[in-house]
Each structure stands twice: as C-alpha cells, then as structure tokens.
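Researcher: Here's the sequence for the chain we discussed earlier.
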Amino acid sequence: MGSVPAHKRGVAAGLRTMLNTCGSLLSISLSMAIISSSVTPKAMQALFVGTQVGSQGIAIDNFIGGLRLAFGISFAFSIIGAVLSYMRGPQPKWDSIEESQSA
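Model: Thanks. This is the structure I predict for it:
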C-alpha cells in the first residue's frame, strides 16, 4: 500500500483482493483440470460415485505426472510474476503530489 497515494488506498485494497481471489480461482481450476485429465474416466467416475477406495484402479504414474505438470505450470507463473514485480521500478514519491493537490 506504500506505492499508492493515501486517497486511493481503498481502491487499491479492493483491487488487490479481487486479483488474489481471481488468481486462486484460476490456479485451482487449472490445476484440477490438468490433474483430472491425467486420470482415466473410469477412475474419475469411481471417485465421484464413491466406489474408489485407496489407489486401486487408478494409474498412479499418470496421476503423479499430471500433478507434476500442474506444479510446473504454477512454478512458471510464479517466476513470471517475480520477474514482472522486479521490473516495476522504484517506488514513486507521492508526498510532493499530495501537497500540490491539497494547496
């Protein structure tokens, strides 16, 4: 919040919360789509019906492969986000702008 003028902090907080929620929604849906696409339809049906007990009937290697792919994509997005955050530049100085607006 230090990089936002004081009179805009409410808007910035709301925007940050919205972006956090959207990021969580997208990451969970993407991860579940990748992981569920690696498991056979028969095993997925058994999971939803409740007849699946333990790891019998599921190709564990396929599931672990899908999980690794989901984690790899999440890692790549994290690296991209870190690079973009690093490239944002120095923190702006809002004090001089606020003083000129209040005068």
